[in-house]
Amino acid sequence: MTIFASIAPDLYLRDRAALRPEPADPSLSSHAADFAAEFAATLNRNEATARAAMTGEASIHQLVEALTSTQSAVETVAAVRDRVVEAYQEILRMPV
């Protein structure tokens, strides 16, 4: 492979730009905040349904739906938490 002195700087600058890390996605933090807010809203809504069922204002069917929705939301958050912890532990195992 022959590289001429006139094109070497251009190739260097092109390759250097390709290796530059991309900036972090600012929307990632907003997605995490939206996820947390949606989780909290789901828990609050289902808790209100459970209270209404205890006072007779909501049916058993609504209570079962609320409990199932809460269980699903908690399992989802636990799975996300486990993946984050797993990724963090993997980063800690990387040699420096």
From TrEMBL:
| Pfam assignment, any one | FliE
Keywords in alphabetical order: Bacterial flagellum, Cell projection, Cilium, Flagellum
Entry superkingdom: Bacteria
Q: Which InterPro entries match?
A: FliE
Classification via NCBIfam families: PRK00790.1-5
Q: What is this protein called?
A: Flagellar hook-basal body complex protein FliE
**Native species:** Paragemmobacter ruber
Species lineage? Bacteria, Pseudomonadati, Pseudomonadota, Alphaproteobacteria, Rhodobacterales
Gene name, Swiss-Prot/TrEMBL: fliE
